[in-house]
Amino acid sequence: MELVKESIKNLKEYKTNKIDFKIKLDANEGKNILLQDIYKEGIKFNEDFNLNFYPDNDAYLLKQEIKKYLNVDTSNIIAGNGSSEMIELVIKTFVDKGEIILSPIPTFSMYSVFSQIYSAQFIGIQSNEDFKVDIDKLIEKSNELNPKVIFICNPNNPTGNLINKNDIKKLLENTNGLVVVDEAYMEFAEGSMVDEISNYENLIVLRTLSKALGLAGIRLGYMTANQKIIDVINKVKSPYNLNAISQYIGVKALKNKDKIFEYIEEVKNEREFLYKELNEMKIKAYKSYANFIFFKWDINNLYEKLIDYGILIRKFSDELEGYYRVSVGNKNENERFIKILKEIIENEKS
Ligand SMILES: *Cc1c(COP(=O)(O)O)cnc(C)c1O
């Protein structure tokens, strides 16, 4: 008997890099801006917070902090094990076998991976040559295909492109499906849809602590939507899905708005530095609204050449062969990256 279900037979495992590196610019992780304080203070266990009991299933204290951070009510929030869990929860809750999930492409791979796992049909709508999303084309396709869910990554990973708020509203008003806006990088841009959740019954916004808050290691993401959506998804969510230590650290971290905003400003400045330098080298770099830059390079094996210098970036294959994504690092890392690129260009010439 064939034991593995049909839908996942040709699924590939999510593999991560085990390469030796000095500078890690491949996964858009933020810097350690909050953890130093948390390390210093240590985790304080007491009667209310100990590890022999199951964690708070409602993550109440954490939602209180998210409420202050985003200005949304706690009843409009679900938190969990990274926004990856949130993406899966949306599909699990709303999409039946064979139903359509739509997304502009190229984009974050997990939308299509989870679509496949749940036997949904993922359809990608190709963006323009400069990777801008044509919202009218997306609406037209949505009317034609009637998707259950549309995923919009905004700003988009890997291109860094931003869709403006009015375009997203237009989409919301012209589709019968749910529109999930993944705002993993929205701290580095403007135009969040969070303040629109009460205006649309088909809007879900995803956020994470993995990027601007530099806490990818605790796996904490959340969604915000109107109460009706939240109530349904809560029925599907696994009990105690967010462990006590992540809840604890999340609470500590979200209290540091000042530090977070300071860091965001630093990333934006460094992003402009990288963008300018790449363009001056005549490398095609795309304007980015996130904490990374997407660029095209027509010399072979840039990825491998950078690894020889201890620098890890992200490379792409298939239709995106020759495209790369580099996270915005700190000043030293970015300067080193640019210096090495210049060296590689020189070596190519000789
Ligand atoms: C990094 C990233 C996330 C964050 O995922 P977590 O599971 O919260 O770490 C979500 N969406 C996109 C598009 C991302 O690039």
From TrEMBL:
Pfam families the UniProt entry points to: Aminotran_1_2
Reactions accelerated catalytically: L-histidinol phosphate + 2-oxoglutarate = 3-(imidazol-4-yl)-2-oxopropyl phosphate + L-glutamate
Keyword Amino-acid biosynthesis appears in the UniProt entry: yes
Superkingdom: Bacteria
UniProt keyword annotations, A-Z: Amino-acid biosynthesis, Aminotransferase, Histidine biosynthesis, Pyridoxal phosphate, Transferase
Pathway named in the protein's UniProt entry: Amino-acid biosynthesis; L-histidine biosynthesis; L-histidine from 5-phospho-alpha-D-ribose 1-diphosphate: step 7/9
Molecular function as annotated in GO: histidinol-phosphate transaminase activity
Span of domain Aminotransferase class I/classII large: 22-339
Cofactor: pyridoxal 5'-phosphate
Annotated EC: 2.6.1.9
Top-level EC class as recorded in UniProt: transferase
Residue positions where N6-(pyridoxal phosphate)lysine is found in the record: K211
Entry keyword annotation includes Amino-acid biosynthesis: yes
Assigned protein family: Belongs to the class-II pyridoxal-phosphate-dependent aminotransferase family. Histidinol-phosphate aminotransferase subfamily.
Description of how the protein assembles with itself and partners: Homodimer.
HAMAP family assigned: HisC_aminotrans_2 (MF_01023)
NCBIfam families per the UniProt record, alphabetical: hisC (TIGR01141)
Protein name in the entry: Histidinol-phosphate aminotransferase
Organism: Tepidibacter hydrothermalis
Gene for this chain: hisC
